[in-house]
Amino acid sequence: MCGIVGYIGEQNCVPVLINGLKSLEYRGYDSAGVAVLSGDTIGIRKTKGKVDNLSNLLLNEPISGKAGIGHTRWATHGAPSDMNAHPHFSNDDKIAVVHNGIIENYQELKAELEKKGYVFQSETDTETIAHLIDDYYKQGHDILESVRKTLERIEGSYALGVLCTDYPDQLIAARKESPLIVGLGKGENFIASDIPAILNYTKKAYILDDKELALVKADSVSLYDIDGNEIKKEVYTYKWDVEAAQKSGYDHFMLKEIYEQPKVVRDNLAQRFSEDGKSIELDGIKLGRAELENINLIYIVACGTAYYAGLVGKYLLERMVGIPVNADVASEFRYKEPLIDEHTLVIVISQSGETADTHSALKLAKSKGSRVLGIVNAVGSSIARDADDVLYTLAGFEIAVASTKAFSAQVVAMYLITLHIAMELGRIDNDTFEEIKQAMDLLPKQINDILTKAVPKIRRFVNKYIGSKNVFYIGRGLDYVVCMEGSLKLKEIAYLHSEPYAAGELKHGPIALIEEATLVVGIVTQEALFDKTKSNIKEVKARGAKVLAIAMQGNRSIEEVADDVIYIPRTHWMLTSLLANIPQQLFAYYMALELGEDIDKPRNLAKSVTVE
Ligand code: AGP
Question: Could you tell me the pTM of the whole model?
Answer without folding.
Answer: 0.87
